[in-house]
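Subject: sequence -> structure tokens, single chain

Hey, anyone have a minute? Need the predicted structure for the following. Not urgent.
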Amino acid sequence: MADASEPLQPRGVKPSASDPGPESPSSARLMNKENAGPAESSKTRATSELFKEIEQLRSRIEELHATVSRQALADVLPAGGYGALVCRVGSERYALPLELVEHAEMMCALVSFPEAPAWAPGLLNLHGVLIPVLDIGARMARCVREPDPADLIIVCRHSEGRIGMIVQEVVRVAQFYSERIKPAPSGLQQAPYVLGVVEGEDVPVFLLSVAYLVNVSDLPELHA
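Reply:
Had a minute. Here:
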């Protein structure tokens, strides 16, 4: 009786020595891989070149951003220096243009500000005039933050009126000269409303644009 494990051959036909027999799955995979080799290599090279082009574009964008930022910085910073009120917001330092700062108020009960975003906790009633209040820390993080009784409200002027900025502490009044101010890094979360970064300090000091910060904070209009 024939062994069941051996392949059956037609009677009277002997297998040829040159006949390789049935192709094994592993042999088929190897042949397919060898045949696909040039095509796969071509795809790999194309992908590698594409990534190189992407990196070159990123570098170019960084260069253009730095150029535009330097020009914008030169346009807004006075030649004689930048007077600033340096404040602590969370663990960071922000500087407000001294020429726009009117005064500081202790945190107090705020008037409800309907349809305001999470970073605008209310309105400051200043001698009968309602002023929108913006929490800088909450705006940077785009989150809700309950004002602390120890917070301060820095009242500043801008092109459309006045705005109150919540900070945790007033650190000092400073004069920064242009040679110490560098453009904000493009990857900085708050870069759109940061004029620049002061170098040579114990911690970085970010120069804020009050007008830009107000414009991008989605504050509802106040109607008299």
